[in-house]
TrEMBL record:
Domain Lipocalin-like, first and last residues per copy: 35-127
InterPro entries: Lipocalin-like
Protein keywords: Signal
Segments forming a coiled coil: none
Signal peptide: 1-23
Protein name: Lipocalin-like domain-containing protein
The organism of origin for this protein: Flavobacterium cupreum
Amino acid sequence: MKNLKKILFVVALGLGMFATSCSNDDNEGETIVPLQGKYNLSKQGIVAPDGSEQLVDAPENASGCNRDYLELKLSNTAVIGDYDGANCALVETTGTYVRSHNDLTLVIGGVTTTSDIMNLTNKELKIKDKTTGIITVYTR
């Protein structure tokens, strides 16, 4: 009986140490949701002087067409899908992306943009361009 109590004590102690060693402090505020996926362009806007976000439906989405999209692949390939024109023709432009902590850098068509990842969930990617301050919201 004493051996069983010792074994249970050691197991409980080990589980307690394991649980306390697995904290979120190591990720420096990053989310653990994977960045890779296909995101539909949803909203765009700015942060107003009072600190509130002013977001509207993305004007790039052509009326009557599927929504434009951003696809981030495991191979660090980025694809921008743009539906345009009267027949909603899809034009895809391929480039690369790099994530460093909560920064997302896209290189598409020779143009480099770096954005802060404001929110990343299983349903949403919200980024803010570091140069222009424009907020873009994508949904999965």
